[in-house]
Every structure is written in C-alpha cells, then in structure tokens.
Amino acid sequence: MTARLNHTIVAARDRDRSAVFLAEILGLPAPLKLGPFAVVTVGERLTLDYVESDGEIVPQHYAFLVEEAEFDEIFERIRQGGLPYWADPYRHQRDAINHWDDGRGVYFEDPNGHLLEIITKPYGSAGTEAQRPHPLIASQIAVDDAQPGGSDARPRSDDKRGGAALAGVERPG
C-alpha cells in the first residue's frame, strides 16, 4: 500500500474566512463545513482542514503545484487583491516572481500569516541543467571540496566508515 497525505489541519483565527480565502485565490470549489473544520479540497484526495485557534498561530508553509494557465489566473487574483508577494520564501524579493527550474513561482501570505506558494515546476525538476536552477540545487558539491583537507575523494580501503567518509559523517561505534 502506498501512503498518501489525505488532510492536514491548518490553524486559523477565522476558519471560514481563511478557508474561503484559499479556495478563492486558488480557484477551488467552496469549502465545506465538517464539524469544527472548514475543509478545502486541494487535490483528488487532499484537503486542508481549517480550525479556529485562540492561541498563537505558528505560520506554516503550503506549496501548490499548478499548471501555467492556472498560475496566470492565481497570480492575477493575488495582484487584484493587492496582496504582497515575493519571489523567495525569505520575503527579500518583493513584487517579483521566480523562474526556478525554468518554471514560475511566487510566495504570498494568507490571513493568518501562513506562507503560501504556487509553482509551475516541482523543486529540482529541471536539475542543474536548467537556465535558472532552483537555488537549493543550483550547484553541485565537488567531491574534492567535501573532503576535509584533501583532494583525494576516494575512501581508503582501510576506511571503515565507507560512504560516510564522503559525507564527512562519523558512524557510531
């Protein structure tokens, strides 16, 4: 059996407003009420279940893979709504989108401070050959650089750590 994420609970100050915000911005069906939750269906078998929270809300990050045409529609709703948006998750590049993995991506916040993201290409999907590789994989680590104090990247035959030597990690006992 393959395990699949079915739902996750999202803390909100106003569960209904937050669920409607997500559904409208992404162009999804209206949320449904299910007990204490406002449920937004975001995939064939995935829902985000908003619940009221009286306490501190710890911001989470939710990324949505969308088609190119959907990106255009969602991005237009972001702009029409006057929402701040960024090209990066650190919110340094305001009013910009990124082109990582030769696709497009943008970050914006929901009413609770959760960081939402829409992307047209999965992280790393274009590898290092992309014109604009994702910054998390944009460069390869040279094996020589990974070795403490040396350029001989091959583990010695007497090295009992095996592949851990290449990673610079000691194995216990």
Report on the architecture of this protein.
This protein has 173 residues and is of the alpha/beta class. It has 2 domains: 1-58, Signal recognition particle alu RNA binding heterodimer, srp9/1 (2-Layer Sandwich), CATH 3.30.720; 59-156, 2,3-Dihydroxybiphenyl 1,2-Dioxygenase, domain 1 (Roll), CATH 3.10.180. The chain is built from 4 helices and 8 strands. The strands form 2 sheets. Strands 1-4-3-2 form a 4-stranded mixed β-sheet, covered by helices on one side. Strands 5-8-7-6 form a 4-stranded mixed β-sheet, covered by helices on one side. A hairpin with a 2-residue loop joins strand 3 (37-43) and strand 4.
Secondary structure blueprint with pairings:
Layout: E1 7-12, H1 15-26, E2 32-34, E3 37-43, E4 46-52, E5 61-65, H2 68-80, E6 85-86, E7 105-109, E8 115-119, H3 143-146, H4 163-167
Under the CATH scheme, the architecture of the largest domain is Roll
The CATH topology of the largest domain is given as 2,3-Dihydroxybiphenyl 1,2-Dioxygenase, domain 1
| Number of H/I helices | 4
CATH class of the largest domain: Alpha Beta
- What is the terminal-to-terminal distance? 35 Å
Number of strand elements: 8
- Mean pLDDT equals 85
